[in-house]
Every structure is written in structure tokens, then in C-alpha cells.
Amino acid sequence: MASPRPLPIDPLAEAKRQWLAHGWTDAADGMAVVTSVMRAQQLLLGRVDAALRPFGLSFARYELLRLLGFSRSGRLPLSSVVARLQVHATSVTSTAERLVRDGYVIREPHPHDGRAAMLVLTTAGRTLVDQATAALNTEVFTDPGMSAGDAAELVGIVARMRKKAGDFADPRPQPDPL
């Protein structure tokens, strides 16, 4: 939970100072990176959750709906959803089942693979994800809390880290503009 007012010192800078004072100099920068990114994730997720709350969506449910909404026909095989969201199949299946239950997605048999399922966005799901996207664009994405230059630099840095970790093989650190 965020503090109601700013702290008088940066607790992550203090943590790094403590790491250095305890002789963990080789790990101090890495600790500062990890805890800084994790704190930034908490802050951003809080804003995203607040924007999605009126729509009854978690970010996982939103991501699945948005992915289907971006597809040409509003349908994708479950295996493609798992690969693109980079989440375990069990998590995607659970999220999809809740969206099916709520009438935002339907499951259909795969046209060429009897063992596979297709996830299909319903009209209600498309309406919901479009409304939720408008809210996220207005409340979070238009102003993520940093300048456009800092945002581009951060995206590039994180993309290089993700690529080194094996997240993707594309040689470009970020997609070309559409």
C-alpha cells in the first residue's frame, strides 16, 4: 500500500547504503535494480488496477481480452494465447474460464486439431475491452509518470534485459512503429 505522503528519504537508496555498509558491494547495484523495478511495478499495477476496477477486470483478464481483440478475427488458439502472454497454461486456462463464465469469451473446438481449443471474443467482450483500454489510455498509459525520453530509455533497457534472459529472440529491442 502506498504511503499517504512521500517518505522523507528514499528507502531503496537507504537499502543500498546498508548493503554497502555491510560489505555487500558486489551485490548492492543489483539489489537496487531489482528492488527499484519491483517497486515501480507495484506503483504501476496500483494505477492499472484502479483503472480496471470499474470494469471488473484484473490485468490478466484485460490482457487476454485485448490480445483477442487485436487478432484479425477475435479468435486465437489457447496455445497461441499462452505463448504470447508468456504465462503458464494453467493460469491462462483459469483466466479464460472466468471470462467464458462472464460471457466475454467463448471456447470453440480448434478447426484442425481436435485436442486444442480456440478462444473467441464475444461482442460483450469486445465492448468491455475497448472501454477498459480507453480508461487505461487516459488514466495510465498517456502519462506513465515519466517523460517520453525516460520512457523510451526504460523500455529499451528492460527489453535488452528481457532479451538476455531469453524472453525473445528478435534482434530489435522494441517493435518498429506500426
TrEMBL record:
InterPro entries referenced in this protein's UniProt entry, alphabetically: HTH_MarR-typ, MarR/SlyA-like, Tscrpt_reg_MarR-type_CS, WH-like_DNA-bd_sf, WH_DNA-bd_sf
UniProt keyword terms in alphabetical order: DNA-binding, Transcription, Transcription regulation
Listed PROSITE patterns: HTH_MARR_1 (PS01117), HTH_MARR_2 (PS50995)
Protein name (Swiss-Prot/TrEMBL): MarR family transcriptional regulator
Chain ranges of the HTH marR-type domain: 30-163
Keyword match ATP-binding: no
Top-level taxon in the UniProt lineage: Bacteria
One Pfam family from the record: MarR_2
Organism name: Microbacterium istanbulense
UniProt keyword Cell wall biogenesis/degradation, yes or no: no
